[in-house]
Amino acid sequence: MHEPDRASVLADLAAELATSPTEAATTATITERAAALVPDADAVSLTLRVRRGRFSTLACTHPLAQELDELQYALGEGPSVDAALTHDWYRSADVGADERWPLWGPRAADHGASSLLSVGLISDATTAG
């Protein structure tokens, strides 16, 4: 995607989000747009860091994303958890063999996940999800 195309997509998204009537509609739009922007994405979710070091999935495009998020929260490791705690992003071409998540990775592969991209969301210089 060329730079003007990205700018147009982001401008359209900002306009759409500004008119979203509810948080649920907003988060659903974000995950749907992320899935459209990453053509090979089969499942997209939006994780939020909540109180006491806990996490919550605000929206997802496929039940697999919810399952994999819940597995991360239960194990305390995984790309969404890491991205929600840092200002970083994570990419893996082989989830099952990725040494960064020795508990979550093989289980995620057993669920059918093979690769991933996880990006931290920042609000007011604080990582939010």
Question: Can you describe this structure?
Answer:
This protein is of the alpha+beta class and 129 residues long. It has five helices and six strands; from the N terminus they run ααββααβαβββ. The mean pLDDT is 84. It has helices at 3-18, 23-37, 63-75, 79-85, 104-110, and strands at residues 45-50, 54-60, 89-92, 116-119, 122-123, 126-127. It has a two-stranded antiparallel sheet with strand order 1-2. β1 (45-50) and β2 (54-60) form a beta hairpin.
Based on the model shown, name its key terms.
129 residues; alpha+beta; two-stranded antiparallel sheet; 5 helices; globular
Overall form: globular
Order of helices and strands: HHEEHHEHEEE
Low-confidence segments, ≥5 residues, pLDDT <50?
Answer: none
State the helicity in percent bands. Answer: 40-55%
Task: Explain the layout of strands and helices.
Blueprint lengths: L2 H16 L4 H15 L7 E6 L3 E7 L2 H13 L3 H7 L3 E4 L11 H7 L5 E4 L2 E2 L2 E2 L2
Antiparallel strand pairs: 1-2, 3-4, 5-6
